[in-house]
Amino acid sequence: MNRFIRAVRNADLDAVRGLLREEPKWLAWSEEDGKNALHHLCGLDASGDPRKAANGLPLLKLLLGSGMDINAVHRIASGSAPCGFFPATPLWYAYTRGRNDALVSYLLAEGANPGNCQFAIAWNDDVEAAELFRRYGAEIDGGVFLAAYKWKRFAIAEWLLKHGADVDEADEAGNTALHHAVKRRDPAELLQLLLRHGADAEQANTAGVTPKALAEANNRKKALTLFAAT
């Protein structure tokens, strides 16, 4: 770790200012995968360190005001991503790693792209963050509702449905949330939530099995009663 990044990670505002005056080249520095000072700063957990907590926002303002890219991408290798990596931005770091509300709010207000934190918000079952990001233009990513439901993050799953998520989006095996609800024997109120938002009990997965057929095969009488009522 170089001295500039050490100063950033120590939230040493005076040291960072001095280094930038001496060698502005640090503003363009990054690791091979794109990780730079903004990612290191926004990923700091300052919850137990009052100095880091106090200096985080001034440091962020200094780096952005000196010309660093608010949407700089750290390319985190990911076999599941179409391009082979996940594009981790300073905002993503501030929300997922630093858990720093002040930095998240500032980045959003300054125009940071709000669009790559949806799965993290879903994992955290964080309706408050979902509302905040939505106010700054975040749209609902495909697959995030189904992921939330499968993770049993039901508060955010319901929020996503209320804001336009597709209740019948399916995984690679063609299973919808309703398939998973029947398989897991989820309580009736969760089945009712899905059905209120238009879940299709006749939508077949890749094996040709519908949620209704699953309920019949597993003697899910309550589910069948709910399906018949829709």
UniProtKB/TrEMBL annotation:
<keyword id="KW-0040">ANK repeat</keyword>
<keyword id="KW-0677">Repeat</keyword>
<dbReference type="InterPro" id="IPR051637">
    <property type="entry name" value="Ank_repeat_dom-contain_49"/>
</dbReference>
<protein>
    <submittedName>
        <fullName>Ankyrin repeat domain-containing protein</fullName>
    </submittedName>
</protein>
<dbReference type="InterPro" id="IPR002110">
    <property type="entry name" value="Ankyrin_rpt"/>
</dbReference>
<dbReference type="Pfam" id="PF13637">
    <property type="entry name" value="Ank_4"/>
</dbReference>
<dbReference type="InterPro" id="IPR036770">
    <property type="entry name" value="Ankyrin_rpt-contain_sf"/>
</dbReference>
<feature type="repeat" description="ANK">
    <location>
        <begin position="173"/>
        <end position="206"/>
    </location>
</feature>
